[in-house]
Design a protein that fits this description.
single chain; 308 residues; alpha/beta; Oxidized Rhodanese, domain 1; 2 domains; 5-stranded parallel sheet; 15% strand; globular
Length: 308
């Protein structure tokens, strides 16, 4: 009888746990361990449940020395190439989901694993968002400071290419973390949403078009330059400082944050910081390259207060 009661209690607790997870799903709260330290990763290098991904712009960067066991993800594999002829379409968009599924499975990524990403601040954040967008079901973290911090602390490096056992992914596109121009036009005046321009202030103010069809920013957007969110060795600022930077720019706690930049890449850094702060965040992947081409989409050049 006692064993039966204990078994029933275990089932009830398990169901309660699942219910709590469902209640919190999609509430904008940052998942556990979004950002891990070099010390944490060093202690878990031999953990078979962890896959380390090194996203690099050139293979030579990876071959010159990487964190032991890290698998290479070429930057070119997670963004679409420039359109041909130039100017005929958008660049650096998310590739087809089948292509991404094959890419990550070949790197040993599976649904039940913990993936730790490092690279540049931008590439790591973009890869984080890409994995979220295809519905990756495991744990997902960025290594704070990346390879710069790892090297600075004289932690071990390797030039060996690890043997990889192909992973198994169940992917699905998540429409809740990406938006387009029509979505922004419909909700740009919403009191519960905040559009954030991640570009440097001179692009935001319209002093430099950055090669876009028009100069300026999306009307109503505030400016949080992606470079303001990191300190030495590409480490993110502490949560208290990040929260202040967002508040100084006009982002209120609990607001949904929609981020854009030139082509959707540096926006990933602000997206990641917003997620760290618990915001429900999305990226306008077409970003200003798309918005500026659309004559019906309003553009402004008025500055908001500088972010310190």
């Amino acid at each position: 009888m006692m064993r039966s009661m204990q078994g029933l209690l275990s089932i009830v607790l398990a169901l309660l746990f699942v219910s709590v997870q469902i209640l919190h799903a999609g509430d904008g709260k940052a998942p556990e361990q979004m950002l891990v330290t070099t010390d944490w990763l060093h202690k878990h290098l031999s953990d078979p449940s962890i896959v380390i991904l090194h996203v690099a712009f050139a293979k030579s960067e990876y071959l010159a020395g990487h964190i032991p066991g890290a698998r290479l993800i070429p930057w070119q594999s997670i963004v679409t190439p420039p359109p041909q002829p130039p100017g005929s379409g958008l660049t650096s968009e998310v590739p087809p989901i089948a292509q991404l599924d094959s890419l990550f499975e070949s790197a040993g990524v599976s649904d039940n694993l913990h993936v730790v990403i490092y690279g540049s601040v931008v590439s790591a954040a973009r890869l984080f968002w890409t994995l979220e967008q295809i519905g990756f079901a495991g744990k997902l973290s960025v290594l704070d400071g990346g390879l710069d911090a790892w090297r600075e602390e004289k932690r071990p490096l390797s030039t060996d290419i690890p043997e990889i056992r192909r992973g198994s992914l169940t992917t699905h596109l998540r429409s809740d973390i990406v938006v387009d121009a029509d979505w922004i036009m419909n909700f740009m005046n919403s009191s519960s949403k905040r559009i954030v321009d991640a570009r440097l202030p001179h692009f935001y103010a319209g002093a430099d078009s950055g090669g876009m069809a028009r100069a300026g920013h999306i009307t109503g957007a505030v400016n949080i330059p992606y470079t303001s969110l990191n300190k030495e060795l590409s480490k993110y600022r502490d949560l208290k400082t990040l929260k202040r930077l967002f508040q100084d720019a006009g982002v209120i706690e609990g607001e949904q944050v929609i981020v854009y930049c030139h082509v959707g890449q540096t926006a990933s850094v602000v997206y990641f910081a917003a997620r760290l702060l618990g915001h429900d965040a999305r990226i306008y992947d077409g970003s200003f390259q798309d918005w500026a081409k659309r004559s019906e989409c309003p553009v402004d050049t008025m500055m908001t207060p500088d972010v310190k």
